[in-house]
Amino acid sequence: MAEQGDSTSAIAIGPRIAASGGFTALYREGMGLIEEVAAYLDEDGREDSRFLPREAAFLYATESMRLTTRLMQIASWLLLQRAVNEGEISRENARAEKEKVKFSATPSERGGPGYDLLPQMLRDFIDKGDRLFDRVMQLDQLERGALPDQPIGQANGIADQFSRLQAAFKRAD
What we know:
The protein is mainly α. The protein has a single domain, classed as Orthogonal Bundle (Helicase, Ruva Protein, domain 3), CATH 1.10.8. It has helices at about 15-20, 20-40, 45-50, 55-85, 90-100, 120-145, 155-170.
């Protein structure tokens, strides 16, 4: 531990996590989900949507567009982070590029009229996309040096661990 007055700076853990094997797994999962969703929407999903009532068909179009938009935003983030991890671009250049990709907000609630009529496969993909988005946002906040947001009443292991570390180091001062 650095003595008080020592010029040694703290090690930023966020970028190390973003460059870890955990990122590789997240990258594979994200790109795999993108491929699965694209295949579904081009094949089975297209067929499934033909038999929906009008209200549900409109909702299908809306939700599938939201999902593909969200997944493309995630893909952009993942590709930029991979380029940083592989030394192809600097962290600063990646941050500048990431600022151009504005993530669309996750609806606070899913559902509404016709949602239950959507094909289960689409609803499953929406749920997976939302969970993936939350993980990417946590990693992005860590990479930027911030603690991930913790929704009220929801456990967040990363934020909880960082809070504990901060509390421990404050006591050690």
